[in-house]
Specification:
513 residues; alpha/beta; Rossmann fold; six-stranded mixed sheet
Length: 513
């Protein structure tokens, strides 16, 4: 069992409290989903539970972590540049369990995650694998060590639809407790039986932790019903209190008026009024105590994403956006697909799916190369890896106001503030922000640029399951054209007009269940 008692985590740079008073117990059979808005410390919690040294450079903590020598398996959210540059075989050899595993064990783990066992011995750099292939490979290496508890930071990222189904089955049958972060609402609904919710209220200054031993959908529904009931009770109490206060003010004003008007020749009447005033003051004190004990209005952390300007982003119906005919789609020397045709007109919203490594991101790169130079369109490209657009020490304000002009900086700060960025976070290097916060920055840049064509590679992958519905609604309402790759089943159903599967024989329409 893994037990956490009164855990508090504070950011070293600006002394922001990310998590306060978190306590929970993780036992066999538990599939605990760690949820919360972007930048609330979810990944930091997982790193801390695995090894405190991972958070020491940027955070300090208090509380107790009782793990009783458990062997913990940790899947990090992202690989570093050095790891991505390593050949696959060298990356695998860095895992002690890989060196002691026999070929049969390696083959079983590879098949378990849907990989060809030969992948362990490739000399290709890790960076040349698709995002899904990297996740599967790391999961296979993790399982070789037979951990007592699994700490998984977004294992569903970059998995194709078939692999997501496998992951659901793996989590449901896992014999050891699992604490995981995922942005896939369908996965959470089908697998989680414990929910640990991290929030930061009052403009991200007040941390709150909630632990519920229930399923994800039940938690969300119960929370909404509870908040609605609490708000109803609070409004009723306030209405009744306002009525009492109005009567109190009328009595007080009447006594005040009579005291001001009473003649000095009537001392007896003055004494009666004085007693009356004491009674009125006593009533006022009782009302103040009643105000303090009233049911509070519910507080929750709202997901906020700035909407696109409908006029600026609109595209005429039928406008040619992309006519792409490719005899072959290749990644280096590797043939991925043939006879590929992608024709898109405004304002279509296209979702592209396919197996990991099929070439979906490669196809989006080609589309971006075609569309970004065009002057008749305002195209924005959101790649799967944000590093290329958020390199260096640039802050969120620098990225949203590259001109450096005062009006642009003011507008950038206003937008960031509206999306609950604290003043300190606006000055942090953007590369050091959470994946969700960086995704919000790219969305804001698209809005500021008045983009009418969006090329999006896994647009919801870094948004929390609580933010994702807002993201989907914003993109569903977007009046321009969207060409996207996604494995988010709800995104494909709610946003996309057409879903295409990339196969070795080209693109073919598919119907999602």
């Amino acid at each position: 069992m893994l037990q956490i008692q009164n855990l508090t985590i504070t950011h070293r740079q600006d002394l922001t409290t990310l998590v306060e008073g978190l306590s929970f117990l993780l036992a066999p059979g538990d599939r605990a989903a760690l949820i919360g808005e972007e930048g609330n410390g979810k990944s930091t919690v997982l790193k801390l539970l695995y090894h405190p040294s991972l958070v020491e450079p940027y955070a300090e903590w208090t509380g107790e972590i009782l793990d009783q020598g458990l062997r913990k398996g940790y899947l990090a959210q992202e690989l570093g540049p050095e790891e991505l540059a390593r050949p696959v075989l060298e990356f695998c050899q860095a895992s002690p369990a890989f060196g002691t595993a026999d070929p049969g064990q390696l083959a079983r783990r590879a098949r378990q995650v849907g990989l060809d066992p030969e992948i362990f011995y490739h000399w290709r750099p890790m960076a040349t694998l698709s995002g899904g292939e990297r996740v599967k490979l790391r999961l296979a290496l993790l399982l070789l060590d037979d951990p007592d508890v699994l700490l998984l930071d977004e294992p569903s990222n970059d998995l194709d639809l078939a692999a997501l189904t496998w992951l659901e089955g793996f989590l449901l049958s896992c014999p050891v407790p699992v604490l995981y972060i995922s942005h896939d609402e369908t996965l959470l609904e089908r697998t989680a039986n414990v929910v640990i919710h991290l929030e930061r209220l009052r403009r991200r200054t007040l941390p709150r932790c909630t632990v519920a031993r229930t399923g994800y959908r039940d938690y969300v529904n119960t929370r909404q019903v509870g908040f609605a009931h609490q708000e109803q009770v609070a409004r009723k109490e306030r209405a009744e209190f306002d009525t009492k206060m109005e009567k109190f003010r009328q009595i007080r004003d009447k006594v005040d008026h009579r005291q001001a008007a009473i003649s000095r020749q009537d001392p007896h009447g003055g004494r009666l009024l004085k007693k009356k005033m004491h009674a009125v003051q006593s009533l006022g004190r009782r009302l103040e105590r009643e105000r303090e004990n009233m049911t509070q209005m519910p507080e929750w952390e709202q997901a906020i994403l700035t909407a696109f300007d409908r006029q600026a982003a609109a595209l005429p119906a039928g406008k040619t956006v992309l006519h792409l005919d490719l005899p072959e789609l290749r990644a280096g020397e590797r043939l991925l697909s043939q006879n590929l045709r992608l024709w898109v007109t405004g304002p279509e919203k296209i979702g592209i799916v396919g197996a990991n490594g099929a070439g979906k991101s490669t196809l989006l790169n080609i589309a971006a190369d075609e569309l970004l130079p065009r002057t008749d369109l305002r195209t924005a490209y959101m790649p799967q890896d944000y590093g290329g657009q958020l390199l260096g020490d640039k802050t969120p304000v620098d990225l949203l106001a590259p001109s450096g002009q005062r009006d642009d900086i003011t507008r950038a700060r206003t937008l960031l503030g509206a999306m609950k960025y604290q003043a300190e976070e606006m000055e942090h290097p953007a590369a050091g922000l959470s994946g969700g916060q960086r995704a919000k920055l790219l969305f804001l840049a698209m809005v500021l640029n008045g983009s009418n064509v969006l090329i999006l590679d896994e647009p919801t992958r870094n948004f929390s399951p609580l933010s994702a519905p807002v993201v989907r609604q914003v993109l569903s309402d977007f009046p321009g054209c969207i060409i996207s790759v996604s494995h988010d089943r709800l995104y494909l159903k709610q946003v996309c007009h057409q879903v295409l599967e990339l196969t070795e024989q080209g693109l073919r329409p598919v119907c999602l269940d």
